Amino acid sequence: MLEIRDSVFPILDSFFLYGRQEGKGGVAVVRLDAIGDFILWLPFAQVYRQLYPDQKIVLFANEAWADFARSFAFWDDVVSVRVDDLVYSPLYRWRMLYNISKYGFSVAIHPTCSRVLLKGDSLVRATKAHERIGSAGDQSNISARHKAVSDSWYTRLVPMNLRLIAELERNAEFFRGLGGERQHLLPMGDVPGGEVHVSVPAGAYVVLFPGASWEGRRWPVSRFAELAQWLFRSFGLWVVICGSENERHLAEMLVGGAGVPNISNFAGKTTLAEFAMLIQRATLLIGNETSAIHLASAVGTPSICLLGGGHFGRFVPYPKDWSGCQPRPVYFVMDCYGCNWRCTKPRAPGGCVPCIDAISLDAVKREVSRLMHELPRVS
Questions:
Q1: What is the DSSP letter of 121?
Q2: With 90 as the cut, is the pLDDT of residue 186 above it?
């Protein structure tokens, strides 16, 4: 069905994009991917104004983090996009494309490497900007045939190194293609967006993040529970569990399994800005390879990443020469690394993939102990 949409929707889109654009100026920046991708891109987003100092910059953002993006002064406006509805709701799609076409942008920029035909590529096409810049991109999310179609919607494609490099380096590569200078991942300082409206522990605490976008990437909740017990008994740390509303059941399982008195469950109870502030005040964060790991680095909090092999080297580990607070990965190498999470190994229904399951509790404890001995004494 998606293959049919990829072929039919671009044809139907043309009826809503008919006519020439009346150029009014301004820059459209299209970024529709996940929260973690947005965090890794922020060091570059903040200097777009240096490249376009006299232009109005409008960010078209995934609704999952659009409100958080509005907290930053890097753009003049943020338009929230219901990303899935671009694919599954024709009425929403064509209304959005039509509205974008009326902005009159002179420049459109799509800095995403793994482009998607019916999402970011379609929005760039809809701008009808005189200059439409995108990454030459890979084929992680698009077929060769459809990529050839969407490539034609751009006036310039920034060349891409075909070897596997970290996403931070990939962002730097694109930014250099725009004419900018290399940026380093720096802590964002005080998190914008107000105060935390949940009861934060008064003493030192550790954040556990048991969720992930796909169940196969989740380290077993039972091991998180054992880890919570050990953290409390060994270091006296209060345990704070975080996650989305959809991950609340995982957090509740963790609380029940841990059985320790000093534990708080904030899953589904915080905004993204509040979540970032919780992480910033924490002694340590431990979680799967998700946005939480990248947020911790951005706000300067040490983190331990339970890392599988699907995207190993693309998002984590970070490049060694990047400044900032780098996450410490714990992983178990297998010969199938680099599968793009298309795992062919057997696993239990609803369970994690073998490269995640192979990460032992003892391995995580050893890394926590090393890190805790490097940190100032907590109390």
A1: I
A2: no
